[in-house]
Amino acid sequence: KLQAIFGTSPAMDKLNSLEELLDRRTPIRAVEALHQSIVHTTSPARPLENTAVGLDASVFLKLASHPKRDDIVDYLDARLSGPLILPGQAIQEFWNNQLAAVSTLADGLKKKFDALRTEAEKLDSNFVVYADRMDHLLNEFSDEYGFAYDPATLRSMSTVLNVLERKAFVPFVPRVRFHEIAITRKRTKTPPGFKDDGDGDFYTWADFLLGLLEAREKGLRFDHAIVVTNDRKIDWSRDGTAHPILRAEITQLLGVTFELWTIDQLAKAVGGTNPALSKNPSDQ
Fold it and tell me: What string of DSSP letters covers 11-72?
């Protein structure tokens, strides 16, 4: 009754719009998004400056240890004109999972990794094919998870966090209010997060969308959005293409297009190579 008399606040309007979308009380154009995701037609590049950038917990440490870290941090700090979104859920998951892995496993993991490589190098010529394959796997593992035993990584995090403190929107949707929606979406295998036990990915997505709404309310302009993540499960993307339901939701809510990027794609973009930001004809 009070809402009917006095209206709703901007904050309530944002949450109402988000809740109605995630609960499907607001329809989405799912078939259109599916069609666009399957076609994979390359479209012209768009300026990264017109893009909102979101960071997932899985890229925090990768960003701190990336060879192009300084370029990326400088871009996010000084040159990104669109909003930088750090979902509140991502902060919690970084502390609970990523940071815990580094602080508790770093020394032991490095010793075991080095010992395994040493033993592999002892294999004689009869086992050379296995040694080569093992070396390849070890190199791949090092590229993907090497941050977990690099002592300099945590020191580098301070620079990254300073930028995030200054620049990032850090939204949290009300957890109790969205709890039933999270459960229903998981049971219906609605992305993201249906491949995980908990609801963390759902809240990461909901926080990200709320952050975009807050940025739009503050007057920041963007016509495209990306989430930088190392999560490769199909409840986020398939072969680098974002799940069509995610694309449909963000387009319905904000009228913008959407992609998932790796940290390497972001590094390439801020380095001035001007990669295409979309693969779908609707993104033109």
Answer: HHHHHHHHHHHHTTSS---HHHHHHHHHH--------GGGEEEEE-GGGHHHHHH-TTHHHH
Measured CA to CA, the distance from residue 148 to residue 106 in angstroms comes to 6
Residue 148 clears pLDDT 60, i.e. is over it: no
Give per-residue pLDDT as tens, 91-146. Answer: 998 888 755 555 444 455 556 766 776 776 676 665 556 666 766 766 666 566 55
Helix (H, G, I), strand (E, B) or coil at 265: helix
Kindly give the pairing relationship between strand 241-242 and strand 237-238: antiparallel
Q: What is the pLDDT of residues 177-222, one digit of tens each?
A: 999 999 999 999 999 988 888 899 999 999 999 999 999 999 999 9
Give dist(CA 103, CA 191) in Å, integer. 31
Separation of alpha carbons 218 and 151, rounded Å: 39
What is the spatial distance between Cα 143 and Cα 230, in angstroms, rounded to a whole number? 12
Are the C-beta atoms of residues 263 and 64 closer than 8 Å to each other?
no
**Which of 79, 77, 86 lies closest to 55, judged by CA?**
86
Could you tell me the pLDDT band of residue 44, with boundaries at 50, 70 and 90?
Answer: very low
Residue 177 contacts by C-beta under 8 Å, 6 or more apart in sequence? 15, 19
What H or E segment, with its residue span, contains residue 241?
strand 241-242
Q: How many helices (H) and strands (E) does the chain have?
A: 13, 7
User: Nearest Cα to 98, choosing from 126, 57, 136?
Assistant: 57
Rounded CA separation 220/213 (Å): 10
Q: Are 101 and 94 spatial neighbours (Cβ–Cβ below 8 Å)?
A: no
